[in-house]
Amino acid sequence: MISKEIYFVDAWVRSNIGAQTCALDAQSLARRCIADAAKAGLTHEQLEEQLGTDLIDFFTGELEARETARSRHPIQTGVGL
Q: In terms of residue numbers, what domain contains 46?
């Protein structure tokens, strides 16, 4: 069974990290997630306990994974697409 903290972080990532996020850093994302979690009644300690890592490390990994995916599948532009 997925904990409410993991469910929250998963939904938050899907809603808040996209193609435009590359300009943000992991620390900024962690701050925003913590603020939103507090509104949902969750502490950052609860999130980190359930993730098994601190939020900055978690978001660093998320951003790196997205960058790797982008580099493997570059956006094609130009004539004939």
A: 21-70
